[in-house]
């Protein structure tokens, strides 16, 4: 009377589906690689990086040709730059290879579905394949490539003790090297050689990332007894010039030059010069789906220094216009040079901060004692972003100018005391020991 379960192909039980439903497994990809270059291009945006690069970048986007697995990587300051970067990439492929991209595969990030992006894809007849919501496995080629790039960049930084704000240069160097290394997916063929069979792998001999180098000074008008070279940090290779990419910590400038002498056994930084842990720069990838919330660690309130204006040296990504050899690029004007208090959206954040200070009774009005000077205050601004990298809210804080205090007079007075994490751990340990 009871049927054998082995004879049932399925058990249509609604309650079982509601209570025991699981996700579909994803087997390893079969050998269904594209048959020709740029028949299928994978893409993904990585970021937000917690530490801005030397030139202010916090994201990068990759485009991977499925046939050759050759990768193009572009640094971005925000996600809104994606459309203009894709336009340049599409034009470059058409011009250099005389081929049009047929299919673009991405995740469901909103920047891939903007009105401009959708219109451009429709106009050029490009099919846009996107993964299902919370299913990064369907965009596995781009996701795995980003992990490979970040792991390689992290290793380059740690091995040579290079400060983490040079992560943009490390990622570009990692992409350059990976494109010129054998790939198991290609049966030990080299991605660069598949697309450029007539070109040599390296137009310049590869060097050790982060080593000490000396760049010839070619600026006219130098004194006869002045130094002939400048000590720099080696950070990679130029994409459009036959030169090495070097950085001077003395002038805070990038140089692209072929007249470089390397001390490859001598790292520029002997010890780690950044106190920021590497996980703050390259977050450790989470294997669980994006909607799964990881356990929240113990948080201690502290205020980090915030950079309001961009750094004074210019932007010089690898895909930018050629820069004269051994000469710095000129600085470019930016809208961020405007006073931050007049930008749209910050006024309400300041009003909310003042209301909170008054409601909490933060200060009392008293008569200034004789012989004492006041400590001024200033506004500090920050943009808070969500897990998806989108702007969550604007935050404004009124802080005291502690650097105006005088040693021996009011130097020991603290406006906003903050406990160190070591002190918190010690307090919790003593509380546990004493019950």
From TrEMBL:
Domain of life from the UniProt record: Eukaryota
Gene3D superfamilies given in the database record: Ribonuclease H-like superfamily/Ribonuclease H
Annotated GO MF terms: hydrolase activity; metal ion binding; nucleic acid binding
Metal-binding found in the keyword field: yes
Record bears the keyword Metal-binding: yes
Keywords: Hydrolase, Metal-binding
Family annotation (SUPFAM superfamilies): Ribonuclease H-like (SSF53098)
Integrase catalytic domain mapped to chain residues: 33-199
A Gene Ontology BP annotation from the UniProt entry: DNA integration
UniProt protein name: Retrovirus-related Pol polyprotein from transposon TNT 1-94
Species name: Vitis vinifera (Grape)
Gene assigned in the entry: POLX_110
